[in-house]
Design goal:
By secondary structure, the protein is an alpha/beta fold. Helices cover 48% and strands 12% of the residues. The chain has two domains: 223 residues, Decaprenyl diphosphate synthase-like (Undecaprenyl pyrophosphate synthetase), CATH 3.40.1180; 29 residues, no CATH class. It contains ten helices and six strands; from the N terminus they run αβααβαβαβααββααα. Strands 3-4-2-1-5-6 form a six-stranded parallel beta sheet, with helices on both faces. It binds farnesyl diphosphate. The site of farnesyl diphosphate (FPP) has 19 residues, from helix 2, helix 3, strand 2 and helix 4.
């Protein structure tokens, strides 16, 4: 598919985006728990489905803004393993929405140099959705801008269980030793293999929960909870979240002084420091 002219930010957007870029680091990977579609609809006396429909507009806006800002990866929790237990009609509506979005948006994603990927138990999705998804992933696979990663039929415990199964299988075949199993080995058996860990997790609708989402990968993520329901969360809210992220001090278990020195390029590895303190 040929790429046509990409989306351009408005003058106002451009100013805000430049401000964010110049005042600090843009997160490399943003993960989002899109929550509150149902409540958004109920508050307006609309069926829950209307909330999901409106939520697609927010997806579009956030994807565009992330692409323009230069965010590397955006993971959206679009359908959890637990969501299969929702009423049948709601599950069908969500699957239809997903199918329509893939049908209608792939061309635009491609024009905007977005690479689409997906994590989750994809084989559980209806075959039509699987096919459209595979097609969209294939069309966009060589794009070099934002990676839009959809978590579909995904849950973190499912992911960890399948990683353990795959590691044990290798051990049973004698392909690995016990000592091969360290943190990076485990990370390589998760569905996010090769992806940087999220720096920033955004959850909408004021809920303070992880809901079985990327439990391993979010170990050091900064959390941002927005009181807005997902259908009313737009690029300005994303900019606020990033502004807030830029004010945080990420210590990764170190103390502030070490973080400051590390930023100035003077921090040695922890192992070296301990060695030096022992040997004088
Ligand atoms: C949570 O709101 C939202 C979902 C379970 C689905 C999110 C799906 C979309 C935004 C549309 C399709 C997505 C893509 C990527 C095209 P909720 O229903 O749990 O809200 P509630 O907590 O208020 O009930």
């Amino acid at each position: 598919m040929k790429r046509r002219s990409p989306n351009r930010p408005t003058a106002e957007d451009k100013k805000i985006q430049e401000g964010l870029r110049s005042s600090g680091n843009i997160p490399v990977h943003i993960a989002v728990i899109m929550d509150g579609n149902g409540r958004w609809a109920t508050e307006r006396s609309l069926p829950r489905v209307a909330g999901h429909n409106e939520g697609v507009g927010s997806v579009r806006d956030i994807v565009e803004a992330c692409g323009q800002l230069g965010v590397g990866h955006l993971t959206l929790y679009a359908f959890s393993t637990e969501n299969w237990n929702r009423p049948r009609e709601e599950v069908s509506t969500l699957m239809r929405l997903l199918l329509n979005s893939l049908q209608n948006e792939t061309d635009k994603l491609h024009q905007n140099n977005v690479r689409l990927t997906a994590i989750g138990d994809i084989e559980k999705l209806p075959v039509k959705v699987q096919d459209k998804l595979a097609q969209a992933i294939s069309i966009t696979k060589n794009n070099t801008g934002l990676t839009l990663n959809l978590a579909l039929s995904y849950s973190s415990r499912w992911e960890i269980a399948q990683a353990v199964r795959s590691i044990v299988r290798k051990a049973q075949k004698g392909e690995i030793e016990l000592d091969d199993i360290d943190e990076s080995f485990i990370a390589d058996h998760l569905t996010t293999k090769g992806m940087p860990e999220p720096d920033l997790l955004i959850r909408t609708s004021g809920e303070y929960r992880l809901s079985n989402f990327m439990l391993w990968q979010l170990a050091y993520a900064e959390l941002y909870i927005s009181p807005k329901f997902w259908p009313e969360f737009h690029r300005k809210d994303l900019y606020e979240a990033i502004k807030d992220f830029q004010k945080r001090e990420r210590r990764f278990g170190l103390v502030s002084e070490q973080v400051r020195r590390r930023k100035n390029g003077g921090e040695k590895s922890l192992a070296n420091k301990i060695f030096e303190s022992i040997t004088g």
